[in-house]
Design brief:
Length: 349
Amino acid sequence: MPPTFETLLETWTGESVLIHRDRPTGTWVFIALYSTRPGTPMGGTRMRVYDRPADGLRDALRLAEGMAYKWACLGLEKGGGKAVLAVPEPMRGKARRDLLLRYGKLVESLGGAFATGEDLGTTPADMAVLHEVTRYVHGIREDGRVTDPGPFTANGVAHGIRSVVTEVLDRRDLEGLRVAVQGLGDVGEPLVRILHRKGADLTLADVEVDRAEDLARELGAASVPAAEIYCADCDVFAPCAVGGILNPSTIPQLRCRIVAGSANNQLEVPDRDSLHLRDRGIVYVPDFVINAGGALVFGTMTGTDGPEELMAKTEAIGFTVREILREAREREETPLEAAFRRAERVLRD
Ligand code: NAD
C-alpha cells in the first residue's frame, strides 16, 4: 500500500509539519521541522512534480531528518527542517514567481521558526524572489546578491571523494580515477568540472540527455543514457540527482568500489541498503556527511566573507569523511552507522 499522509505522519520521529495547499496552482506545500531543540530549523526548499502529494510529504519528512543529522555532524547549532513545493507541473514565468511570493509570505508568517535556501528544483534567482517577502532566506549577501550553494556543496563532495579514495583505494590524488556522475545540475556540473581539473576519467548521465552529451563533449568525457549510469564500470559512483536511487534493483548493477555523491536520501531504505552495499564490498559515504559543504558555508557565513574564504571552509568535509570512515573501520560497522552515532551523540548532548 503506498503511504498516506496519516501513515507517514504517524511513523515520523520529527516534531511538526506545516501542510498548505496553494490553490491558484494546486501546489502542495510541506514545511517539515524535524528538530527545534538544537536551534532554528534550516533547510532548502525543493520544487518537484511528484506522482502523488504523499510522495512530496515523504520527501519533506526524510529531508528534514537528514538536515538534522547534517547540522549535527557539522557541529552547528541548528535544527533540521526542509520544505517541499509539490507542484502539479513544472512552473515557469509569472506563475512560478507568484507561487514563490505566496510561499515566501508563508515562511515569513512563521516568524523565524524556519529558514530556507535553494535545493533541487529551485535556483538562486528563486531565492531572490523569496527574499522580496521574507527575511528567512539564507545565502543573501550584504549587497543583496544571492549566493549559490551548489559550487560549495560540489567542492565539499570533491574533498570527500579525495578522502574516501585515500582511505579505501590508497590513492593520493584523483588522476585517472574513474568517476560516474548521475545528475549534472547545480552540484553535479561544478563537481564534474573540479574532478576534470584533477584528471579524473568521467562518465556522465542526466535525464536531460543534451546536458550530459554537451558537457561530455566539452570535457572529453563519456556520456551514457540515464538508466545505464548504475552499471558504469568505475571507481566512484557519484549520485547527484534525486533520492532513493540505491535500492534492491540498482545496487546489484553497480560496478564501483565507492558511492560518494551529493544527492540527499540516496538509500531507499537506509539500514537495508547500506548493508547490501557493504555485502557487495562497496563503501557508501553517507550523503548527509559528504553533501554538507553548502550547509556549512550557509550556516556560518557572515554576509561579508569573500568567495575564496567561503570555499576554503568546505575542506572540513574531507576531514569529517575521513574520521567517519576510520571510526567505522575501527568498530567494524558501516560508515552510515558511524555517522548516525556521531550525529546522535551531538543531538543528545
Ligand atoms: P538540480 O535540480 O540543480 O540538478 C539535478 C540534476 O539531476 C538535473 O540536471 C536533472 O535533470 C538531473 N536528474 C534528475 N533525475 C535524474 C535521474 N534519475 N538520473 C539522472 N539525472 C537526473 O539539483 P542540485 O541542486 O544539483 O541537487 C542535486 C542533489 O544534491 C539533490 O538531491 C539535492 O537535494 C542534493 N543537494 C544539493 C545541495 C545544493 O547545494 N544544491 C546541497 C546538498 C544536497
